[in-house]
Amino acid sequence: MSKRFQAPRGTFDILPAEAERREATYLVAAELFARAGYGRLETPAFEDTELFARGVGEGTDIVHKEMFTFTDQGDRSLTLRPEATAAICRAYIEHGMHRLPQPVKVWSWGPYFRHERPQAGRYRQFHQLDAEVIGSDSPLVDAELIMLLDDLLRGLGVPGLRLRLSSLGTPASRAAYREELRAYLRAREGKLAPEVRERISENPLRAFDSKDQATREVMGEAPLMVERLDQPDAEHFAEVRSLLDQAGVPYVLDGTLVRGLDYYTRTVFEFESEALDAQAATLGGGGRYDGLVEAIGGPATPGCGWAAGIERILLALDAPEPEPLADVFVAAPSEQGARAFALVQELRGAGLRAELDLAGRSLKGQMKQADRLGARRAVILDDEGKAEVRDMTSGEQEELDLARAVEALSR
Ligand code: HAM
Question: N or C of the chain: less Cβ packing under 10 Å?
Answer without folding.
Answer: N
